[in-house]
Every structure is written in structure tokens, then in C-alpha cells.
Amino acid sequence: xxxxxxxxxxxxxxxxxxxxxxxxxxxxxxxxxxxxxxxxxxxxxxxxxxxxxxxxxxxxxxxxxxxxxxxxxxxxxxxxxxxxxxxxxxxxxxxxxxxxxxxxxxxxxxxxxxxxxxxxxxxxxxxxxxxxxxxxxxxxxxxxxxxxxxxxxxxxxxxxxxxxxxxxxxxxxxxxxxxxxxxxxxxxxxxxxxxxxxxxxxxxxxxxxxxxxxxxxxxxxxxxxxxxxxxxxxxxxxxxxxxxxxxxxxxxxxxxxxxxxxxxxxxxxxxxxxxxxxxxxxxxxxxxxxxxxxxxxxxxxxxxxxxxxxxxxxxxxxx
Length: 319
Prior knowledge:
Mean pLDDT: 94
Domain Gfo/Idh/MocA-like oxidoreductase N-terminal: 2-118
Radius of gyration: 22 Å
Pfam families: GFO_IDH_MocA, GFO_IDH_MocA_C3
CATH class of the largest domain: Alpha Beta
Strand order of the largest sheet: 8-9-10-7-11-12-13-15-14
Number of domains: 2
Strand content: 25-35%
Largest sheet: 9 strands, mixed
InterPro entries: Gfo/Idh/MocA-like_OxRdtase_N (IPR000683), Gfo/Idh/MocA_Oxidoreductases (IPR051450), GFO_IDH_MocA-like_dom (IPR055170), NAD(P)-bd_dom_sf (IPR036291)
Distance between the termini: 46 Å
Low-confidence stretches: none
Protein name: Gfo/Idh/MocA family oxidoreductase
Shape: globular
Organism: Mesohalobacter halotolerans
């Protein structure tokens, strides 16, 4: 078992603490948090060992899991990597692209593994759908959330939309050509709702909308490609795949047949994948342990996370 230490004991940090303790891949050594009063309370209530010195926690573990505000990611990760520790960072990887690039170089220099917590990659609906997404040419994503003061220190793009940016970049095998975007600040000092249109070199277009002032929650993405439509509901953990193929010469009574203006007939059928339930956060943490133990590339690399951050920053700059 890999010895792991958690950095940050806020809402998400406490989830990581609980899952790390339950995981068969890790031995939870303890945690560090700058809020000593709250940390001691959490330690007393749950039995987790509290470290008041970050370096001491680093010294005692194999893996550091950083679940702190984005502004602190770089310094926390830099210290851990330079100490030769494998490092997991919650999304977004860092506050700036330059910081992310520096961490990538440090990983290579110190020969340790790094992974970023883009948890939607481990959403069971996306895991089931991703193998069926091949050369999509139009993508539409909506990520709507009710207002929550937590996270409003950053624009909605880094708070919410970056999930969809990362997921889309993972299935579109092409470089970004251009970005157009607009955003509006309603409650926060930074945009609370935003829309981005990303055009890729291969002609694919992605239209993304994110809002943290919605009256209802929604986390959906739709992928359109030749002869197929794939819908992924990240919130409800459901997937729907609608495909088309050449219509049979003698259609059955219940076959769904469409005919275009040129007279070509296509049969519509459903090819919905089986969605296996999981705990996405636990799965991403355990996938990181597997990558370390087997010396394999991590599922969400620092490079991939840096690319998602670069696109996110470009969107923000276009507001």
C-alpha cells in the first residue's frame, strides 16, 4: 500500500480523507491544513493524524494529494515533487499555465508521477460512452449549478466549465484553432455565466455553456459524429447512443427508417452502453495508485491538465 497524505481539509478534502482511508490502494498517514483550529477538530472527530508542518507530512508519505484552493496548488506541488513524492492535484492544476509547465518539468526531473483531479473523466456515464465517441464534429455541453459561495473566487470557467473542456479535449484528436467567448458577472466579481465556442483544426466545433447561478442543476454533453449521436448525462450518470446504418432492403415492422432528400435510406437504432456504477473520486485516486505501482502513464496527466487550463484561460481572456 502507498502511504498518502492529504493537503487541505475543506469540503472536498474531507471526502478525499474518507476515501483514502477506505481505499485498499493507500494507507492514510495524515493531513495538513493551514486552519489549525478546524484541522484539530476534524482530527479529533475522525481520528485522522493532523500535521502542523507540511514538510513533515511530505517526509512521511509516498503520495501527496493536494485539495486546497487553486492559488496554493503550485507551491504545494512544487515542494512535494522536489522531495520526490508522487503528486495528485485537484483541478485546475495551477493558477497559471506557466506554473503548470514548471510542474511538468519538475515531474520529469524528479521521475515521479502526477495526476490531476478532472473527475468527470471517471464519471461512469463518460467511461461507458468514451469508446463510442470517434471523430466528433459538433459538441454541445451544458454545466449549470445553483449558486454556492464556495468556488466563486475564480471565474465560472475554472470553477465549472473546465470539466467539460478537459473531457472534450480527451476525445477530440485535434489542436484548437480559435475560441470565441462571452461571460457575465451577476453576483461574483468574476463571471458567473459563460459561453464558449471552440473550433478545432479538423473542423470540429464545441459549444460550451456554464453557469453557477442556475435554478436547476445540469451536467450534460452531446457529441455528434458521422452516423451517430452520443449523449452523456454526467449528473444522472446516464448515456444514450443513437446510431444510423444503411436501411435493410426489407425493413421490419418496428425498424426506424429515415430517407434524406437524395433518397438514401438509413435505419436508426440504439446502442446504449452499460453504465457501471462507481465512486468517481475513489476511482481516480486508485487509478493514480495503479499508475505508480505499474509505472504507467496516469489517466489525467499534468500535460493534459495544462492544455485544459490553457484553453480555459483563453476563454476567460475572450470575455
